[in-house]
Amino acid sequence: MSTGITGAIVAGGASSRFGGQAKGLLRVGGQRIIDRITNALRPVVDTIAIVGNASGADEWIPGATVWRDERGERASIVGIHTALVRAETVIVVAWDMPFVTESLMRLLARSLTPEGAAVVPEGPHGPEPMCALYTRDCVGAVEDALNRGDLRMTALVEHLPRLVRIPLDEIARIGDPARLFFNVNTQDDLAAAETIVAR
Questions:
Q1: Which one of 27, 30, 116, 150 has the minimum C-beta count within 10 Å?
Q2: Cβ(118)–Cβ(134) under 8 Å?
Q3: Is pLDDT at 2 greater than 80 in this prediction?
Q4: What CATH number has the domain bearing residue 35?
């Protein structure tokens, strides 16, 4: 059944802490992070897109479209902008989040009301705009932020139109929020992710 939603995996960052190795291609529990995210998205979205500029991105996920960044700034918000320029409704997931689940993706999709323009879940440390749903009605707010040079994701959340927030207790019903929104930024994080899988 068509949902009209695109799943956009944002493959940003130079991964300098991993010697230049692409974070999303690192393995957690024997599986690449990007594959784990794709498996969570596929049952919920119509198409998968990779947002990134890496030369090998076309080969990462069979059947996925690759969208090159529309702007030159180096920040996560650029990935959201690129996705919104290409898709009407998109679930954006940063490619360093190995523990997102199909249940979380379904919660984002069904939380979009007819009046809503974006759905952002709350995590243990605040909003999680890099695991969220956006409609094209948000592109103006994103472009305004970029044009102001304000690349902070937390600031963007406050300026999104008709924002639907998913509270932490609702997230907790489908899984441990600390695990769902865990991201791998360092070698220590990667080791911690393996420990989580082993448990």
A1: 30
A2: yes
A3: no
A4: 3.90.550.10
